[in-house]
Each structure stands twice: as C-alpha cells, then as structure tokens.
Amino acid sequence: MAEPRRRRSVSATFLLELLTDQLAQLDPAGGALEVVDLGGGTGGVATALAGRGHRVTVIDPSPDALASLERRTAEAGLEGRIVARQGDAADLVDVVGERSTDVVVCHRVLEVVESPADALAAMAPVLRPGGAPSLLASQRKAVVLGHALAGHVGLARRAWADRTRFDHDRLVELVVAAGFTLQASHGIGSIADHVAESVVDSEPGAYAELRALEAEISQDPAFRALAPQVHLFARVGLLTPAAVD
Description:
Blueprint: H1 10-26, E1 34-38, H2 44-51, E2 55-60, H3 63-75, E3 82-86, H4 92-96, E4 101-107, H5 116-123, E5 127-138, H6 140-149, H7 153-161, H8 168-177, E6 180-188, H9 197-202, H10 206-217, H11 221-226, E7 229-236
Parallel strand pairs: 1-2, 1-4, 2-3, 4-5
Antiparallel strand pairs: 5-7, 6-7
C-alpha cells in the first residue's frame, strides 16, 4: 500500500499559493507559462507548477538531483511538462536561449552561489519583456534569533557579523541593480515556522487559521524582517514599481 502523501507545511503552502497567484498576473487568461526553475533540485516547486499547467525547465548542477527529479516527474505523470537540464546560472542563456521564458524561479539559491549579483544578471537575458524572477532567500536576522533562542549565542554573534547573509533591504538593492522592478515582497514563515507541527495537527482548524495569519502578516515590515525567508517577485521591462514598504 502506498504511503499517504505528507501535507505541505503552512509556510510551503503559503509560498506556493503566493507564487501561483503572482504567475496568474503574467497571463490573466490562465495560459501555460514557460518557467525556468534555477537550482530546482528534485523538483518540489517544478512539479507543483507543472501540475498547474505550466511548462518547467529545471536547471541544476547535481546529476543525482536531476535523476530524482525525472523519477518524481514520471510518478506524477508530468512527462512533457518538466525538462531536466544540468547547469547553473552561468549556463542560462546557453540552456534555454535569450528571451525564451516568462518566469525564472530562483529559490534558496542566491545564498549559496559565489556572486548573487551575477546570478541575477544572468536571469535578465532569458526573460521575455514583462517576465518575472521569483526569488526566495534566507534572512540573517532570523538566523541570529534562531541561534540565540537555542542558546548558541556565539553562533548568533557570528551570524550577525556575517554581512554576506541577506536581509530584505539588501535583496531589494540587488534586484533593482540587476534592472528589475520590484512588485512585491513577503516574509515566509514569520509565524508558521515557530508553531509546532503537533499544535497544528491537534487543534481543529489550526492549519487553515495559521495559513490565513501567515498571509495577513507577510507584508508587515516588522514581521517580514524576522521571517526565516523572504520572497521577492519582480518584473523586467516595467517602469513603475509596486508599492512595497
């Protein structure tokens, strides 16, 4: 008997719903978009987006991750909607071609590449006019707070001193410097990541209530600053930015 599929965390569910709504802004008619998932690994985001009708090219340097992605794609019946390609940000134009895609998903990648600025710059040539990068990165303040609350004060101080770690404002600066126009920014996990799963499972309606609360506070500057991760959605070729606190 197949094991039941594990429910997504509140944070993961909110992020996927947020991204789905943002992609719908690119084509209000609901058409399929061409999506590149940079560093997409085993395909958690790719399979979700392909399941919603989009065509996704996953680019990742790990052959093992891509092999797992291909198995996952077959199990989900998504052959033809997901393509796996080995590479990294520097290979984007060579792999997918200029002005070939509507969205570049870059989640949990900028904090591990040698040059986040170069990675962002590499996205612009492959995006069509009006296309969008979807960026997700860990935030320094949340790392500091997590270490301190766990009693690892020395690690907290080192994390605070590590200016290579991101925060919201630095990410926004990088996005703007790369020529994109920021449309929205949301904290991910500001509340949900601090609530024990046992609480969510034991209290009726807690999952839905926590999901709603996470959405409600995600753009509050104070909560967003302490969120474990921040999600930025931008556009290329637009002159007017959205109102972002």
